């Protein structure tokens, strides 16, 4: 088996987990494939070959300078506070060498460096939720998708904040070596294999604002705790002691989303947890989450996650 070189770029104030998370995945996969001659050769490099200090204070010592690094199959650019003012020399290096890689990957705000180098122009991409708006404003040629934990567009893959880099790396290992290898690495790291790329970065509660008025805030909490209940606008308005029209208008004004969309996200999230953590059947889960029928839940999953409930469960628990 031919080894693929994975080159991870280091720079001052890099996010250490953006580096070490993917490293653990690829080196773990290499150990899995050891009998077949290995699968990955993971290398790190900084501009001058010198140590860099991560944003958490951890010092990382690269294998070499970028100028002396091997030609990579996968070029991985991590994020961190060091991307806030991109190093023009590093951006120039990426602009020249990025297109040569068979696969270009970023974790978190590493997408900012790829965008500065023009490598995301005309492509779909994501980054840490806190920087999606600024990335879109600064680089209008990039189609920024703020919700997914990672986005694939051709040979370019970008991921959201920090741990999403592990999800993306596992997806790449599965693509390269198959599901068995990726599952072995995920089990060793005690992480799920694997969150779908279009899974939202946030839970339903974190994805919207908390209502300022107590009756609306209480309704938000009640929805989360009772996903299988009657969550129609009429029923929720009655709980808030408001008319349906007034409730719908006030809910959207204070949370930034409609009651229907909020309910939909809560139900999908609850169903996901039941699929992940229990052995309950799809029909039972669909009733518990207020869908009524498995087909209704299937449609909701396809819309929100791009995968059916049975496939979602299989990816988390292949034995089920």
Automatic annotation (TrEMBL):
InterPro entries in the record, alphabetically? Class_I_gatase-like, DJ-1/PfpI, Homeodomain-like_sf, HTH_AraC, INH-QAR
Q: What domain of life does the UniProt record list for this protein's source?
A: Bacteria
Whether Transmembrane helix counts among this entry's keywords is: no
Domain HTH araC/xylS-type: residue ranges: 217-315
Pfam family, any one: DJ-1_PfpI
Arranged from A to Z, the UniProt key words for this protein are: Transcription, Transcription regulation
Q: Which CDD domains match?
A: GATase1_AraC_1
Q: What is this protein called?
A: GlxA family transcriptional regulator
Which organism's genome codes for this protein? Answer: Streptomyces crystallinus
């Amino acid at each position: 088996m031919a080894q693929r070189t994975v080159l991870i770029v280091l720079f001052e104030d890099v996010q250490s987990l953006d580096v070490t998370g993917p490293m653990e995945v690829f080196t773990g996969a290499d150990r899995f494939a050891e009998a077949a001659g290995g699968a990955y050769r993971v290398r790190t490099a900084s501009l001058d070959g010198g140590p860099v200090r991560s944003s958490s204070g951890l010092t990382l010592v690269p294998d070499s300078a970028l100028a002396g690094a091997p030609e990579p199959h996968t070029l991985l650019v991590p994020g961190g506070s060091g991307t806030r003012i991109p190093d023009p020399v590093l951006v120039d290096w990426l602009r020249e060498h990025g297109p040569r890689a068979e696969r270009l990957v970023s974790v978190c705000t590493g997408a900012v460096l790829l965008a500065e180098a023009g490598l995301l122009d005309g492509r779909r991409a994501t980054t840490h939720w806190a920087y999606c708006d600024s990335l879109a404003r600064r680089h209008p040629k990039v189609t920024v998708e703020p919700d997914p934990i990672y986005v694939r567009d051709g040979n370019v893959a970008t991921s959201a904040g920090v741990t999403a880099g592990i999800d993306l790396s596992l997806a790449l290992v599965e693509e390269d070596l198959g599901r068995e290898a990726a599952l072995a690495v995920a089990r060793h790291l005690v992480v799920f294999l694997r969150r779908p790329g279009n899974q939202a970065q946030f839970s339903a509660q974190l994805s919207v604002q908390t209502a300022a008025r107590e009756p609306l805030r209480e309704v938000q909490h009640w929805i989360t705790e009772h996903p299988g209940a009657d969550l129609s606008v009429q029923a929720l308005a009655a709980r808030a002691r408001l008319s349906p029209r007034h409730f719908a208008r006030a809910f959207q004004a204070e949370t930034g989303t409609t009651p229907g969309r909020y309910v939909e996200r809560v139900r999908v999230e609850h169903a996901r947890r039941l699929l992940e953590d229990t052995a309950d059947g799809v029909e039972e889960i669909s009733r518990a989450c207020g869908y009524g029928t498995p087909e209704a839940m299937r449609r909701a999953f396809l819309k929100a996650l791009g995968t059916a409930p049975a496939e979602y469960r299989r990816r988390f628990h292949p034995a089920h």
